[in-house]
Specification:
This is 2,5-diamino-6-(ribosylamino)-4(3H)-pyrimidinone 5'-phosphate reductase. Pathway: Cofactor biosynthesis; riboflavin biosynthesis. Its EC number is 1.1.1.302. The chain has six helices and nine strands; from the N terminus they run βαβααββαβαβαβββ. The protein is of the alpha/beta class. It has one domain: Dihydrofolate Reductase, subunit A (3-Layer(aba) Sandwich), CATH 3.40.430.10. It has a nine-stranded mixed sheet, sandwiched between helices. The longest helix has 12 residues. The chain binds 1,4-dihydronicotinamide adenine dinucleotide and the ligand Nc1nc(O)c(N)c(N[C@@H]2O[C@H](COP(=O)(O)O)[C@@H](O)[C@H]2O)n1.
Length: 221
Amino acid sequence: MHVVVNAAVSADGKLSSRRREQLAISGADDFARVDQVRAASDAIVVGVGTVLADDPHLTVKDEDLREQRREDGRPPNPARVVVDSNGRTPTDAEILDDEAATYVCLSEAAPVDRRADLADRAELITAGDERVDLLRAFAALREAGLERIMVEGGGELIFSLFEAGLVDELRTFVGPNVIGGRDAPTLADGEGFVADFPTLDLESVDRLDDGVLLTWRVDER
Ligand SMILES: NC(=O)C1=CN([C@@H]2O[C@H](COP(=O)(O)OP(=O)(O)OC[C@H]3O[C@@H](n4cnc5c(N)ncnc54)[C@H](O)[C@@H]3O)[C@@H](O)[C@H]2O)C=CC1
Ligand SMILES: Nc1nc(O)c(N)c(N[C@@H]2O[C@H](COP(=O)(O)O)[C@@H](O)[C@H]2O)n1
């Protein structure tokens, strides 16, 4: 399995403002690049915080890229995956539509009625007691044949994936704005590390739109 985390941050490292509304930090060229990364992936993963904030669709936008996937014998869109301990994904969420397969990763704490609602629209994976156990959930995704994984956020999930040692590559578009705010989400939130910080090897730096794309390989821990 190969896990790429891709996100857009402001010049001061924020994913969004303190209102946690969806903000376009990327420009047109970066969104086109993101579409290509999606098209090259077997699954796109987000946390339920992102689903509740953004109601993302997580599909490939360019018809040519979808057609190329069909020609390669793959579904036109990658699978979509939500990490959602308590089954808070709304039943009318865009990611539960028929455009692609969807997996919802739950913990044992997810209420039975929420499981039943979500099971009509998605494959359910249960891993962990109170919170999704990411090592087990990602092992289940791999068993389902999903090898190339793109994670789009948000900050809570990205931190946990680094903590679990599951990230192979980090691609960060740094945009030309300052968002600020101590309560605004950053690339990696959660508890934060105080020692044994994950370290990265810088692979490339590319000017894109009015910002910069940084591509990092994650060192083995
Ligand atoms: N600029 C960008 O590229 C992106 C920005 N965003 C922004 O990020 C914000 C959402 O991020 P967050 O609030 O951090 O939510 P998140 O999307 O990281 O989801 C976190 C939630 O996932 C669930 N979860 C279950 N098991 C977990 C585990 N083991 N580790 C971590 N979480 C687990 C918990 O309910 C937790 O609250 C929104 O403002 C959204 O607009 C989101 C994606 C990309
Ligand atoms: N790469 C990138 N740049 C930004 O500026 C963003 N705001 C995001 N957000 C991510 O894209 C998802 C929306 O996907 P759809 O267009 O609905 O398919 C959003 O939920 C974030 O994960 N990404």
